[in-house]
Amino acid sequence: MLAVTILGNNSALPAFDRHPTAQVVTMDDHVFLVDCGEGTQMQMSRYKIRRSKINHIFISHLHGDHYFGLIGLITSMGLLGRTLDLNLYASPALEDIINLQLRVADIQLPFKLHFHPLVAQGVILKEAKLEVLCFPVYHRIECWGFRFQEIRPVRRVNPEKARILGVPSSFFERLKWGEDYITKEGNTILNADATDPGTPAKSYAYAADTAYDERLIECVRGVDLLYHETTYLKDLEARAINRFHSTTTQAATIAKRAGVRHLLIGHFSSKYEKLDDFEVQARELFPNTDLALEGVTYRAGGPASAATTPTEPATPPLSNTATTSSADTRAAAPKAGTAKDAAPKKAAERDTAAKGAASKDGAPKDGVSKETPKASSEGA
Ligand SMILES: [Zn+2]
Ligand SMILES: [Zn+2]
Question: pLDDT digit string (tens) for 66-79?
């Protein structure tokens, strides 16, 4: 399974009970963290994502709303006695930043940090069943997108057919990868005669903060699930261009032209309390669009309503989350947090929940003032 759980869907400021960007990508045995805005640890606790499962963290760029939670997370991992190595993939400057923070605080971590500087498009992590690639996106500072790609056999062996044709079981693994079998007599058994089509490999692409740029199309072409930022509604296209961000229409255009299956939109500007129009506008061009809502898990390759509402009940104390080892991190707990809420919610219901995050007078719950953020900080 390949799925993404949203921990933070806002840009720049936390507002309206929305948090700066962070996501968890689950594939094979991995739990990958993608971006780590302020508050990510609290969101991980809320949705029962265990720190101890995370061995690879991918940071798109060094605007604070994408990594200001990182030093806190790393420090907590140390306090909790982590010994496994931790891999960080980011712009080269991150190494100096983290090392300075550790040095001035006189912190000796009990585990090793490996910095993997992102310098060129290509594969940055490869294992037998998956690979992760980075690609440039187009923002005010250097910024990277990530593509998570399953690696699966292209064919499934049909044991009955294979046996009748005389293919030995020792050759089955090679059959799965499309090879023909040559008999001792030199006859060729065509792969297609002994196999059936395999389950297609799934893919997820994360296009972080970016202006509309058609060079992205090839990087995300054909993915099952694309996250593309939509900081603004379509009427603010000029502002989006000016600040190297995208609108609903622009994200939907990329999704459509890249032939992706399902679009997730997020990184909403703090100027918007309600998100309904984001979904409406994107769906005008690309109907299979969903809002990236915090606490919801979206499966790559799932149906249009693939958002699965989390099934874990109550939020555990912060200190317990790293030491438990059996919880299913593939589904996170809903904000309302009870198992009986487990039925998948329709988009409209989820919107209502999102709208309900603000108090009746319209002020965000967390006390952030309703004033429009200053131009320099909006949509970082
Ligand atoms: Zn941002
Ligand atoms: Zn940014």
Answer: 999 999 999 999 99
